[in-house]
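Quick illustration, no need to memorize.
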Amino acid sequence: MEEKKYTQADYKSDQPVRWCAGCGDHAVLNSLQKAMATLGVAPEMTAVISGIGCSSRLPYYMNSYGFHTIHGRAAAVATGFKVANPEMQVWQISGDGDGLAIGGNHFIHAVRRNIDINMLLLNNRIYGLTKGQYSPTSARGFVSKSSPYGTTEDPFIPAELVFGARGNFFARAIDVDLATSQEVMVAAARHKGASVVEILQNCMIFNNGIHAAVADREFRADRTIHLRHGEKMIFGKDQNRGLVRDGFLVKAVTIGQDGWTIDDVLVHDAHTPSNFLHQQLAMMDGTELPMAVGVIRDVEGLTYDAEVSRQVEEVRARKGFDSLRSLLLAGDTWTVE
């Protein structure tokens, strides 16, 4: 029987897309549908789960199983769904508020447990659905409706949370760069375990241009670096700049100047178990060093859902359980007359 070939249209629902014109969520939806077509997983074998927020409307626009859950609880629902349905491909969609504020605890534990779900974190550094309050990723001093004189706190950096929770997969993309978004989504889905993809997303209404310094086409080549496993860490409009070792850290140099050659430029190893260099790359912000996009870390590890399934089968075989009733009656029992 010939294997079915899927297209983007196979993953589109019949629901009208209700996001503001120009919202970065449109690009994310487009990229996700194209990535799913590339992966070729049937829509009925796919689930898209979200919490609350503008980005959390996304399940309505997917021709797949979907859950629009409650604020901050997308990771918890996605975890339960994956453990109960290990054969399904599960995508979790969260904004920076939904995922890292009320949902922050669920986020870090889903990463720590290494549950085989694909977590898309749409980061526009604002609460858009509730009309413009500062979020956990808003910069210190950011002026918003809930911080009219500027925030007095430092933000979360999503990559830092992922590495702090011993994450095995982290990637980053920019909403307007659809090719890179699709590339990292496909890589995330093929990774076995918790994968986190941070997407720098623009909110046209309440935080327009927040990522312009790295997203605008005029600056992007010089202020971002697209990392690919096994390739030299080169960037710039003329592809003449690279990352080299600087003691325990990295620095950017111009190839051919001050004695620096292409041989000095580091080769990206996304698969090394050590996350020391991965953290440095993920923390670059586009000012002194270019912001890293692409797959930054992709390391194999035991997954929670697979281990739960293995444990259940092991105990069932050893104890002879063949039903819930046999499990309940396995210990001491008594009859009440």
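The chain has eleven helices and eleven strands.
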